[in-house]
Design goal:
Shape: globular
CATH superfamily of the largest domain: Bira Bifunctional Protein, Domain 2
Number of helices: 15
Number of domains: 3
Structural class: alpha+beta
CATH topology of the largest domain: BirA Bifunctional Protein, domain 2
Distance between the termini: 27 Å
Radius of gyration: 25 Å
Largest sheet: 11 strands, mixed
Strand content: 25-35%
Strand order of the largest sheet: 3-7-8-14-11-10-9-22-23-21-20
Length: about 475
């Protein structure tokens, strides 16, 4: 589509400058803005409403699996982090410290929460005494601060919002079951609600969360060919329980350390929505999380306030009472064409147009944002057809993203092909890896590609089964990509 053919002409085309396109959409749709402090964003109402829908839908799923919500302190004593030096070293460059309370210097520095394993571990040590106290299945919705060097709204900011689950279990098997249960909960959520296909798998040891026994993740492919980590689930083993002395009396009256997990997704999911589904005209939001699912636009011709506007208001009322998030745009200062452009840029999934001719024929015009298709629908069947159309849009966005991922996932058998593919085509590359960190480091240094996940289910990889880097026997099939 040429620039002249697009409704919204003030947005840079994705093909011209993807990064600029992304930032322009974020600001022009009023999802977020830059705060006066470097690296920090303000989430504006339109963006925060998306987060509220994500939070509501995710919270319901988490609670359905038996978890409950709590809240833990924002500030963490330095001594707590020092108890677990590996954890502190993992986050040390990103930790923000509080050194003064008012005019007085604190006796002990307080870390501003980069994650909550340390503070939660200290509390679990108080609460857990017996196997009867297990499992502990707690989630919290909170803000996190990590002093990032390079920031981008929603994707990586100094402060962001997330949910983090922290659980304690009686056995190693139960902790592993929990870790994978949440991984697949995340996968189903992102695919069903956000219409973004993901690949689930295990992280390499180098990419593992500090202090974890294993880290699992879901990875998605953005429309510029880069990967984005959408969520993680960590099996922490007994690492933190030994550090914070979280013990319980088992069924044989012996003292044992609990087995723990932690897991989370963040406002990064909003950035993923933009980069996966957006086009040169702006956002394309899945109906499940769109702030406005339907916009009703009366066509302002002739005596439209007397004959068209009441019909449009009646449509808006009918759809609202049916449970849809709907907006009537009756602003007089803007033309219908301007309104079309505005709501198209904001990614509203479905537009309902009604004009004088439609009134005469007892119909309305439905315009899908995902494929720009128009349908004429009798007013008597409008609510039913709107429901069906929103379901079709949700499925269509997923199918389009899945097709893009399939077209941009490639098998390579040797290192020259790997380097040429990652440079010219990007996307996911499937290749065998020997398991040696030296090969992983070499690939990252020379190509900026990293192992995103090692798939949990066996997949047929390229032949012969040799490490793409060193040509030794390939131990694991891995998905490589450049990533955000």
């Amino acid at each position: 589509m040429s620039k002249e053919e697009r409704f919204v002409k003030q947005i840079t085309a994705k093909s011209e400058d993807f990064s600029r396109w992304y930032l322009e959409i974020i600001r022009r749709t009023e999802m977020a803005d830059y705060a006066p402090m470097k690296g920090i964003m303000v989430i504006r109402p339109y963006g925060y409403t998306i987060w509220e829908h994500i939070q509501r839908l995710m919270d319901r799923r988490i609670k359905e699996t038996g978890h409950v919500n709590a809240y833990f302190p924002l500030f963490i004593p330095e001594s707590f982090l020092k108890k677990e030096m590996e954890h502190l070293e993992g986050f040390a460059p990103e930790v923000a410290w509080v050194t003064h309370g008012g005019q007085e210097e604190l006796e002990e520095r307080l870390a501003v929460r980069p994650t909550s394993e340390a503070i939660i571990g200290s509390m679990y040590a108080k609460w857990i005494q017996s196997y009867r106290d297990l499992p502990v299945l707690i989630n919290q919705w909170a803000n996190i601060v990590r002093w990032e060097k390079v920031t981008r709204p929603f994707l990586r900011t100094t402060e962001f919002l997330w949910q983090e689950g922290h659980t304690a279990h009686e056995t190693s098997a139960e902790a592993q079951e929990e870790t994978l249960k949440i991984l697949y909960l995340y996968k189903d959520f992102v695919e069903s609600e956000l219409a973004i296909p993901v690949i689930e798998g295990r992280k390499s040891a180098r990419e593992r969360f500090a202090g974890a026994t294993e880290t699992y993740a879901i990875e998605a492919l953005m429309s510029d060919g880069k990967a984005l980590q959408m969520g993680t689930s960590h099996n922490l083993g007994q690492h933190f329980s030994k550090v914070f002395d979280i013990r319980f009396e088992d069924r044989e009256q012996n003292q044992q350390y609990v087995w723990q997990t932690s897991w989370g997704v963040s406002t990064r999911l909003i950035g993923a929505l933009v980069m996966t589904h957006g086009d040169d005209s702006g956002l394309r939001l899945p109906p499940q999380v769109a702030p406005v699912q339907i916009v009703v636009v009366p066509i302002s011709l002739g005596n439209w306030k007397e004959n068209v506007l009441p019909a449009a208001a009646a449509i808006e009322k009918e759809l609202r009472e049916a449970g849809f998030r709907v907006r009537l745009d009756a602003r007089e200062e803007f033309t219908p064409g301007w309104k079309f452009s505005e709501w198209e840029m904001r990614g509203v999934p479905l537009r309902v147009e009604v004009g004088p001719k439609d009134i005469k024929e007892n119909r309305a015009v439905l315009v899908r944002r995902d494929i720009k298709k128009k349908d004429f629908v009798a007013l008597a069947a409008l609510t039913t057809r709107v429901k069906e159309t929103l379901q079709e849009i949700q499925a269509s966005l997923f199918d389009q993203a899945l097709q893009f991922r399939r077209e941009n996932t490639r098998d390579v058998a040797d290192y020259p092909e790997f380097k040429e593919t990652i440079e010219s085509k990007r996307g996911f590359i499937r290749a065998w890896w020997c398991g040696d960190e030296a090969c992983e480091d070499k690939i990252k240094e020379e190509t900026m590609a990293t192992i995103r996940v090692i798939p949990l289910k066996e997949e047929a990889g390229p032949s012969p089964r040799e490490c793409v880097c060193c040509r030794k026997k390939g131990r694991e099939l891995a998905y490589f990509a450049r990533a955000y």
